[in-house]
């Protein structure tokens, strides 16, 4: 039966073994950098992936040999992909470096990744089902929307069992779903993901109290909308939103304080402008001033501490943006529709 939903297939089986990983790296490269773990691994490499566009979610199943996945700060700023990725690890293991911690996930685990954050994982030979969700659809339902990266749901818990079964069943049923059915299924899946992950202790980040969620989100949205204001700080925020400074400090204490949050958001905006071809004509100091940094020396020091390079080094190292009109991938491996879906989500 022909699929009613848009479907995208990648299958390297018809390529000579040494060419398979190169083809996969080019395809998945729309949002992840990948590398093999050992010299010679390309001689045994194989990969297969099938994806469906379910409403505005990308639902996939992928099986491949061991590899390393990365999203570095420059890549995050450059491609502007701002989605969540939830994975059901059917087989294999994943080791993840997150800040100063190391996380290990066994088979059966349900794991969340925030694609607006960095990613550093090593997968053994694996088989997984994943769904990529635009932030605008999931974040409003989360108690800790900025703390999902590296969070995991106990697969033996009630919500864990429900979510694992839902993901697997939705993938199996996708070929028979109409677009109207897919839209309803997407809503149910997102609600279930929020339910499952709201019951998980955060891997790092937001306030772990659901009662403060709406207030915290209101402050975060205000901050993001006023980053260019030189006077943005506790006094301005408290006065504009009608909350006390003490309450403001308590809300942001678990993530390092309100000042640190403002600085992080400003640094991310500066990074985005520094690697943008459209902003190449602007001086580094001009970009810093535009996002609220009044002292270029302080900005340069904070930027290097956060991203490991000076602003000028980042600008020189930024690769050109990937073209959306690249020629089609080798037809022997399928299509690359999933790339356009990812770029267009949200």
Automatic annotation (TrEMBL):
Residues 217-317 form the HTH araC/xylS-type domain. This is Helix-turn-helix domain-containing protein. Residues 312-331 have a biased composition (Basic and acidic residues). The keyword DNA-binding applies. It holds the Pfam family HTH_18. Keywords: DNA-binding, Transcription, Transcription regulation. InterPro entries: AraC-bd_2, AraC_XylS_family_regulators, Homeodomain-like_sf, HTH_AraC, Tscrpt_reg_AraC-type_HTH. Residues 310-331 are annotated as: Disordered.
